[in-house]
Amino acid sequence: xxxxxxxxxxxxxxxxxxxxxxxxxxxxxxxxxxxxxxxxxxxxxxxxxxxxxxxxxxxxxxxxxxxxxxxxxxxxxxxxxxxxxxxxxxxxxxxxxxxxxxxxxxxxxxxxxxxxxxxxxxxxxxxxxxxxxxxxxxxxxxxxxxxxxxxxxxxxxxxxxxxxxxxxxxxxxxxxxxxxxxxxxxxxxxxxxxxxxxxxxxxxxxxxxxxxxxxxxxxxxxxxxxxxxxxxxxxxxxxxxxxxxxxxxxxxxxxxxxxxxxxxxxxxxxxxxxxxxxxxxxxxxxxxxxxxxxxxxxxxxxxxxxxxxxxxxxxxxxxxxxxxxxxx
Amino acid sequence: xxxxxxxxxxxxxxxxxxxxxxxxxxxxxxxxxxxxxxxxxxxxxxxxxxxxxxxxxxxxxxxxxxxxxxxxxxxxxxxxxxxxxxxxxxxxxxxxxxxxxxxxxxxxxxxxxxxxxxxxxxxxxxxxxxxxxxxxxxxxxxxxxxxxxxxxxxxxxxxxxxxxxxxxxxxxxxxxxxxxxxxxxxxxxxxxxxxxxxxxxxxxxxxxxxxxxxxxxxxxxxxxxxxxxxxxxxxxxxxxxxxxxxxxxxxxxxxxxxxxxxxxxxxxxxxxxxxxxxxxxxxxxxxxxxxxxxxxxxxxxxxxxxxxxxxxxxxxxxxxxxxxxxxxxxxxx
Lengths: 328, 333
Fold this sequence. Notes:
- The complex is a heterodimer.
- By secondary structure, chain A is α/β, with parallel strands linked by helices.
- Chain A has a single domain, classed as Rossmann fold, CATH 3.40.50.
- Helix content of chain A is 45%, strand content 12%.
- In chain A, strand 7, helix 9 (214-231) and strand 8 (235-240) form a beta-alpha-beta unit.
- The longest helix of chain A has 26 residues, at 9-34.
- Chain A is globular and about 50 Å long.
- The model of chain A has no long low-confidence stretch (mean pLDDT 96).
- Chain B is α/β, with parallel strands linked by helices.
- Chain B folds into 2 domains: 6-189, Thiamin diphosphate (ThDP)-binding fold, Pyr/PP domains (Rossmann fold, 3-Layer(aba) Sandwich); 201-329, Rossmann fold (3-Layer(aba) Sandwich).
- In chain B, the strands form 3 sheets. Chain B has a 7-stranded mixed beta sheet with strand order 3-2-4-5-7-6-12, with helices on both faces. In chain B, strands 9-11-10-13-14 form a 5-stranded mixed beta sheet, with helices on both faces. In chain B, strands 1-8 form a two-stranded antiparallel ribbon.
- The longest helix of chain B has 15 residues, at 11-25.
- The mean pLDDT of chain B is 96.
């Protein structure tokens, strides 16, 4: 599926800018992890940027997002500030989850970003519930739920798909199929590897989409989100994508070949969009330099913000276990 | 002057009345779970509610505990006030990911951004010969988890009155209804309503020992106290009511007066709520004790089916009375 209308310059450049923000942010995270500024588990989105950026472009401000532990890109593309995400990974109070969550648990009420769920499949029931609340309260909003191919093997995936279809709930299931459940290849853990086909068995519209093409992602999402919003029923999108980096910072990446990785890098969504915009004269070399400069500036500012952030006093350790009321 | 009128009802009816009142009071409230609608609830609690409130608010679910408990969490975050019924606490294990990793953690993980105003009702306990997959008291496991609140209504007043404050609470609240209590009947004031969900209650005053119980074991403790009273021993009976956070003050105050404590718990002894309470008494009132704290818990065996073995596995009034008598033995009884 491709965009059905000519690409406006501003639109194309905005998508490129968003993907570059994610790519450069993640690259900087690698450096900061090596410098021990960021600790814990960290999962990078490099290679998959077109999915989050394309989906977010097609959603409305009052739609909801439920994401996974590989969610820096989703949060950035959704509009959670780079500064608050970086501060979160520094464990600072200024972080989007007050430093309590870290890389895997980014939350932001203002943009309806419901985490950062690090139990594979665990976010799907939540998304079903958010959509149920919308339906019961007569709101025409979409809940977009991201999960990986690995989640398809979880019971919670099947329970949630069934419930959303049975109750006709406005959930947009966004499966990011990067072909590996951590280190186990799709064909080594699924009896049916056509995930859209599997999803369709729940009486749900399900399409496979080229997840390396941001315009295809956006177009498919626009169409599917329209069905979800107007039709009040769930849709399933399988985004075929690939992560260029290891599963996490701990992963030696020994379960796939260098050749396979290189082959997928030929489909890198960022150069592909640059080429398209350049070919049509919508992007100059100067434009690219300016984009990179503004992204670098934003990320540098985010790091400075995180560095200058404050650590929560230890006396506050046991706060937020129970609800303390809306933040002032 | 008018005498307040009373109604005779069962624990089941008290619970139903509470749910009905909640549905009438707040359109954000809905009930969902397995067989809560057309069947009327596995234990008959929601009988008639589908006819009165319709399938949007009395929602039968597939046998998908994880999905419908998680959907309850999501719906709560989306502005609703869900009551999720999980048929038995053993089935809560199928939803433990959602209870533990989401309901109990999202408020904290998000730095306090999201409330989870959710109520989960479930049935617990043995005594009905339903064997090793439908009889266990797993309250202690769930009480281990910060971020949850746990209630154990043991009386008609609590069955009638705990739901409203639980729904008003911005945190996930689990209500454990003991299966043997549903048919318990008694009188309540016609206008009985909300009760507190913070404090333990003294169900019987006494001066010689404190019996600490909750849910299904409150009646066991009261029966033991009657037995002891016949031999001149006055036992105080505390109904914990709230299993997390525990009301230490009521327990410690009582033990400081009676100087002896027996904890009665249908959970298994090892790693039980009884163990937690015993530890707290030791930590906070060690020098008040005239005897080591005693525990009467379920035998450490998956619940067997035959009645005589099931009864042998469960805390019985004479086990409790015997524990108190042993404690007093050193004092010359």
